[in-house]
Design a protein that fits this description.
LysM_dom_sf, LysM, 103 residues, LysM peptidoglycan-binding domain-containing protein, 48% helix
């Protein structure tokens, strides 16, 4: 207990850090299980978004699902629109393996 009294700034920092990390884990878990809203930027298309966000499904299936979820008539979207997309998970490459030239 003496250590906490002598180092209360460090103890406070560690405590707040623990709370912050716990909050981040909980909020990340919640958002990945729900559908997400994406604001369409200039130059976006459903096919490009399918490549970015539709990792588990084929592009055609993902685009069809987005069309149905947003009551769209076709694949036309415009900058400024906000659409609902299923389970957003960006395509992050965290493979630190060694690559051989030509592969």
């Amino acid at each position: 207990m003496n250590w906490v009294k002598n180092n209360y700034f460090l103890a406070l920092f560690l405590g707040l850090n623990l709370i912050f990390m716990t909050t981040m884990v909980i909020s990340h878990t919640i958002t990945t299980e729900e559908d997400s809203h994406i604001k369409i930027e200039q130059g976006d298309s459903l096919w490009a978004l399918a490549t970015k966000y539709g990792i588990e499904d084929s592009r055609e299936e993902w685009v069809s699902q987005v069309i149905e979820m947003n009551n769209l008539y076709d694949t036309s979207i415009k900058a400024g629109d906000v659409i609902v997309v299923p389970k957003v998970s960006e395509n992050l490459h965290l493979n630190y393996g060694t690559e051989v030239a030509g592969e």
